[in-house]
Amino acid sequence: MLPKSVVSAQKTLKRQRMILEMVNKTDCTQTAKQQDFQVGNFVLRARRSIEDVRDHLGLSGREMELLICVAAGLKKREIAARMGVTTATADTFRRRAYAKLGVGTGAAAVAIMSTCLAGAEVEERTLEPV
Questions:
Q1: 113, 52 Cβ separation under 8 angstroms
Q2: Under the phi-then-psi rule, with left for phi > 0, alpha for psi from -120 to 50, and beta for the rest, what region is 16?
Q3: pTM of the prediction?
């Protein structure tokens, strides 16, 4: 019998992959830490796993789920329905994710997430004015 924490982690990963497949309306395939995501007419190839990016950015699984839905262009009600929560709960996930990333828009949050998925170095710091 596996410990509860391992079983819980396995269920979370399975649920996240299922959400990704639903959001992208195509299969999300993962091979050796590489995932393909269908966004519009493009296929994005991630060089890092969702789990690595989530941990690196300090996001919860649900916050990452929400950002993936935002990246797919879903509206607030659609996101809530996909996540199985109320719009108020989805909005709470959104606010927390934006606060953790230090951004105020979905476009900025998705830019950080996608840059990190692409394998680029993403670090928290403030640039000095030129």
A1: no
A2: alpha
A3: 0.66
Are the beta carbons of 109 and 98 closer than 8 angstroms? yes
Give the C-alpha separation, 130 to 115, whole Å: 24
pLDDT digits over 2-52, tens only? Answer: 566 666 656 666 665 655 555 444 333 343 345 676 666 777 677 788 888
The DSSP line for 44-84 is: EEESS-HHHHHHHHT--HHHHHHHHHHHTT--HHHHHHHHT
> Using CA atoms, how far apart are residues 39 and 36, in angstroms rounded to an integer?
10
CATH of region 59-118, choose from 3.30.430.20, 1.10.10.10, 3.30.70.260, 3.40.30.10: 1.10.10.10
Query: Residue 67, exposed/middle/buried by CB under 10 A (0-12, 13-18, 19+)?
Result: buried
